[in-house]
Write a structure and sequence with these properties.
Layout lengths: L5 H6 L7 E6 L5 E9 L3 H4 L1 E6 L2 E6 L16 E4 L2 E5 L3 H9 L5 H5 L14 E7 L6 E10 L2 E13 L5 E6 L16 E4 L4 H11 L5 E10 L5 E7 L3
Antiparallel strand pairs: 1-2, 1-10, 2-12, 3-4, 5-6, 6-7, 7-8, 8-9, 10-11, 12-13
Length: 237
Amino acid sequence: MATIDIYKELKENSYPGRGIVIGKSEDGKSAVTAYFIMGRSVNSRNRVFVEDGDGIRTQAFDPSKLTDPHLIIYAPVRVLGNKTIVTNGDQTDTIYDLMNQQMTFEQSLRTREFEDDAPNYTPRISGIIKTDVDDFNYAMSILKSADGDPSSCRRYTFSYNNPQAGVGHFIHTYMSDGNPLPSFSGEPKQVSIPNCIEEFTNGLWTSLNEDNKVSLFVRYINLETGKTDTRIINKNV
């Protein structure tokens, strides 16, 4: 699979929706993840990321403008031991709770489907990162309707063992803007991951469409020490 320039990819797509990136830094020292959200409606744009323990959650920037918390207020990132869970919805809690009961990432997601936001039926995208000095691996998942048919759910899981340094994978909810919004198709895209968290954070944020971007989370996890370095950018400040 060819490695693409994620910044160029984002600049050429005005509405990828919500996106997850997971990979390894170029020097091989860090597990890397990023999650961003975008919005077209006032309700979707009225959000910020805030830290919540080891993870983050979304909250309304202006509570008086929040009209429907359904599907927009959730915890995108939670940490379970040496596992970091990153998703675009409340399936974060499902994965956390069921993996804590010894179920697998894939088994946990079999209890969920795509979002109930007809006619888009937004895919649920999820990632799980396991970080050990000698065993770093990750997986990504997408749950989507059958070409817009809500009676059928298609489930795909992609696993990456012993990831290559400087390489990551990018999955997002929509192929582009539209009405209804076309769901992501194919495998997660292979992208380059730099060593510098500032470079990656700034590159992603400036590449996202200015009108539609809402918030961005980036985390580098040192594979030797487990120490984390996190950046959060909110358009609403």
